[in-house]
Amino acid sequence: MSTLTLTRPLSPATAAVLKAEFTLFRREPGSIFWIMVFPTALFVILGSIPTFREVGEAVPGLRLVDVYVPIAILTALLMACLQAMPPVITGYRERGILRRMSTTPVRPRSVLIAQMALHGAAALVSAVLSVLVGLLVFDVALPEQLFGYGVALVLSVAAALALGALLSAVSRTSKAANAVGAAAFFPMMFSAGLWMPVQTMPDVLARIMELLPFGAAAQALGEAAAGDWPSWSHLGVLALWAVVLTAAAGRWFRWE
Amino acid sequence: MTVIEVADLRKAYSGRPAVDGVGFTVEEGEIFGILGPNGAGKTTTVECIAGLRAPDAGKVRVAGLDPVADHDEVTRILGTQLQESELQAKLTVREALELYSAFYDRPADWRALAERLGLTDKLTTRFAKLSGGQKQRLSIALALIGGPRVVVLDELTTGLDPRARRDTWRLIEEIRASGVTVLLVTHFMEEAQRLCDRIAVIDRGRLAALDTPSGLIRRTAGSTVISFTPSRPLDPADLAGLPGAASTATDARDGRLTVNGTDETVNAVITLLARHRITAHQLRVSDATLDDAFLDLTETSAAPSAAKGVPA
């Protein structure tokens, strides 16, 4: 944040929008719970099952609890970007909040950017929480290829935000955004491996999941956690999704 | 000095014209009304002035600037309160005022504005918890916060109770007294008649009339209304033939007659009654209201005949 401020100072108006949206975000206990608490809580519950803490045949050399750290991170990301953010943005459009802002010197774009920044940041805080709880409670090693882990995480955030923006673009009402968000959430969570880690899926299924953004994200994060540089095919799939989803969101987004 | 200039404005949505050649100018310091039935093109006109929509054809200027091309500059001159524009539900009044203050280089003092609009004891209340009148007052405050030269108020009092409506009217007069030009969009005749210096009546995308409220009333056929209950039945045909009579109507319940006409008609009615030795009970002579003028103007364009023959 500080480097960003140094290189390109935020205008007072953009800073005010960010501040106001941050205040509003703190008033949404539901969102805070599902993004920041639930993923780690779920991870702790799963980790307290004894078999999750044993090295099995499912993933060679790893305990399931090790595999579930990236899954908890992706859960937080999808909660933030698919469940929490689209109804907010769609509601702002539906209730004329963006329209009102277009009559001021500030562009409504700044609200969208603030929303994406806040939900992305909340998911990253949740990610750090999952990694720390993994380390402190279940002795899950920190990612060995830290830089590769970071790259995979940043691309995952970009893809998730872009998908959320696309859902906000195509939903006319916040009710619709809720429904569409929930409908997208479950397949995306499946591909990320919430019910069955991608590493344990049958080969054909795993190959298909790797073509989806969060299947590729789960694989890339898993590889980086194990100390390898994430394979370029996974990073490439993730980057391609981020670009395509961003373009689609930009194409279909309506300000009113 | 002209602050808003609209000339031959045209805007169609998927081929259907919403505004079809509207033109008017608003002078500095006036309260200018845009009046018209629902769907007449009022809001589209205002959205073109606010730079939210690009016109298909015609010219719109705010202080000489093009609201679309010079959008940023226009937003500093023009404060806008749009129809059905809400705020974030959990944003408090104070936060909203601070947020919108930050949008402008030299904002008005929001505390003074809150004081003036009676929002001081609501500063910590969230938007969703405000009453309709309070929401509208906050909307006005936000439209004024940039210290604009012109403020656009679209359907400001729709949905307000009569007391809140009257309070809002007083506010609009105060805004003008402080030197801000007001462009008021409404479909309430009483509001337009009470507040506006001049009114543009828009009907089906066209300018039906542009005049002062009293000018609009005067130009309607039948701007004087005579009503009475005759002591015995009177042939409506006799009345219709009187000089200046625009329309006559008989109330089927009590036989009360209403004649719309001119001052000349009043004398003619009295002469007619004297000749037939009829007594007029509860005789009332009143001026038509803007309501009558509006119906006359918008009906005239609906039907070619200007006379409103009301069946008895």
TrEMBL record, chain A:
InterPro entries found in the cross-reference section: ABC-2_transporter, ABC2_TM, ABC2_TM_bact-type, ABC_2_transport
PANTHER family membership: DOXORUBICIN RESISTANCE ABC TRANSPORTER PERMEASE PROTEIN DRRC-RELATED, TRANSPORT PERMEASE PROTEIN
Keywords: Antibiotic resistance, Membrane, Transmembrane, Transmembrane helix
Protein name from the UniProt record: ABC transporter permease
Transmembrane segments: 32-52, 67-90, 111-140, 146-167, 179-198, 232-253
Domain ABC transmembrane type-2: 30-256
PROSITE patterns: ABC_TM2 (PS51012)
Predominant place of localization: membrane
Source species of the chain: Streptomyces polyasparticus
Topological relation to the membrane, as annotated: Multi-pass membrane protein
Keyword Repeat: no
Subcellular location: Membrane
TrEMBL record, chain B:
Location of the ABC transporter domain: 4-229
CDD domains xrefs: ABC_DR_subfamily_A (cd03230)
SMART domains according to UniProt: AAA
Name listed for the protein in its UniProt record: ABC transporter ATP-binding protein
Keywords: Antibiotic resistance, ATP-binding, Nucleotide-binding, Transport
Superkingdom per UniProt: Bacteria
Membrane topology, as annotated: Peripheral membrane protein
Intracellular or extracellular location(s): Cell membrane
PROSITE patterns hit by this protein: ABC_TRANSPORTER_1, ABC_TRANSPORTER_2
GO molecular function terms noted in the UniProt entry: ATP binding
Species, as recorded: Streptomyces polyasparticus
Keyword Iron-sulfur on entry: no
InterPro entries in alphabetical order: AAA+_ATPase, ABC_transporter-like_ATP-bd, ABC_transporter-like_CS, ABC_transporter_ATP-binding, P-loop_NTPase
Pfam family, one: ABC_tran
